[in-house]
Amino acid sequence: MLVLKKMKKVAVQRTAYVVFLITFGASNQFNNHMKRILTWMLAFAVVAGASAKTKAVKTQPQLAFDPTIGETRTLTMPDGQMVNYTAYEGMFFVTNVEDSTYQTINVYVPDGATQQTPILLRTYVGGYMAAPTQQPKAGDATGRALREGYVVAIPGSRGRNSTVVATKTDKKAGIKRGQTIYTGRAPAAILDLKAAIRYLRQFDDVMLGDAEKIITDGTSAGGAMSSLMGATGNNPAYEPLLRAMGAAQQRDDVFASVCYCPIIDLDHADMAYEWLYNGTDSRQQGDAAVLAVSNELKAQFPAYLASLNLHTPDGTLLTADNYLDYIKRELIRAAQIAKNAGADIPDSLGFTFSKEDMGGMPPINGGVRQGGGQMPPMMQRGGPGGGKPGDYIIDLDMPTYLNYVVSTQPLKTAPAFDTQGVAGGRASGENDEFGNKSGSKVNFTDYSAAKTGSVVSDDIRENVRLLNPMNFIGDGVTDVAPHWYIRHGARDRDTSFPVPINLALKLQNAGKDVNFLLAWNRPHSGDYALDELFDWINTIVTGK
């Protein structure tokens, strides 16, 4: 900062001196050649001053929002509709900026918005990597939100691959001047997103949109971030970290969270993955070392599941003995919804269909909205009602179905996430995520650490805890979002089905409103079925 101030002072002094020379020279009829030299010197001095000023602002910004400086724009939707909005871009959401490339937020206000308009906060985090701010896209939830009349906020956030160059030596941290620093290792991303929420609350009175109606949205690791924003509101563990960043002293709880295929519960995701996929042909006929790891991890999952004390909506306690049947029910529900909407569900995937005439026609389009609540009795296995032979799915052979899922995309290795050094595995993105500012890659589970002869440090263990929403739901001190929309593809193998199911059930058991579906035939993806999503959003924000 001192160097920048000196640069700025020198630039100003040079500017004043050159202005004096030009003025004096002009009055004494300096020759044109001298005037051109002096003019070039003036331009150089002004540019130097502007450059110094810009760097100074990026290094030590203030939290600010000016409602008068927005830029009017238009977004053309896929159907040709034009949506007019005002863009406010590049606002810093912390004062102690470590990485000016990412620690800003963009806000987009559609025509007609008021102080009561809900805000969709979309994160573009993927693979736990850095996410710069972006502009609304006609084809995803941001464009659709603008068309629906919602304010859209798109914050940037640091990630496991974001770096800066150290400007000074920090012996305590083991960092030397000129060294590349990794700025976004855990829990940096969620801290940035929490700071962005606090920024929206800080300027709620002058910015159109209602910061008490923030709806977060993200996919994959972004789905994890969305779930964390929803599950960790105002938890005191994050507070000292946010203060050190210069985040606004505001609340950071949100109204609702939209989570597509969230990659969460990383400290238990390996065991859940092997518990589900251990019996597939891919695992059983694969590498012997990988299968041995798979067997060991599979054996750990029942105890973890029992520790969660999860109950299904009908009150049944979930155990390793009945869990696979519950997953089967969820898959049948998803496939039945799709079948009622006209999808072809082949029996080669393991499904069994009704064979007898049930006395009547099925309801048009199933008589149920995709993802909405339980199926009516006539659509449930063994329930009464009408229908033709083949109308209803009554069973699913899970080994056949899981082999189908694996056939659409190969399984991850075992372990699926904490892979470094285990059964010959290379470091995963998650091993990066829990590394340090020097760029280390580390094991973050006790199982994998033991396999590699290391120990999970207290610092790493705490960062893993801060990145797992399961740790905060129902803890009595956290303000968890009241509304949740969770989707995971019925053929998405990037994490196992138990991971999003456990999240949904823990939220439901805590009394939250949860709309969950293993969306039929969906791979690892997000922001789909936007009609359905925004029907749900409109319902929760209006209460109708």
What does this structure look like?
It is a single chain. By secondary structure, this protein is of the alpha/beta class. Strands 1-2-3-5-4-8-9-12-13 form a nine-stranded mixed sheet, sandwiched between helices. Strands 6-7 form a two-stranded antiparallel ribbon. It contains 16 helices and 13 strands. Helix 1 packs antiparallel against helix 2 and helix 7 crosses helix 9.
Task: Quickly list its features.
globular; 544 residues; nine-stranded mixed β-sheet; 38% helix; alpha/beta; single chain; two-stranded antiparallel ribbon
Report the structural category: alpha/beta
Rg over CA atoms, rounded to whole Å, is 28 Å
Main pleated-sheet profile: 9 strands, mixed
Largest sheet: spatial strand order: 1-2-3-5-4-8-9-12-13
For the termini, the CA-CA separation is 54 Å
Low-confidence spans: 1-58, 360-386
What is the H/E order?
Answer: HHEEEEHEEEHEHHEHHHHEEHHHHEHEH
Note the beta-strand portion.
5-15%
Quickly count the helices.
Answer: 16
Number of strands: 13
Average of the residue pLDDT scores: 87
Q: Into which percent range does the helicity of residues fall?
A: 25-40%
Shape: globular
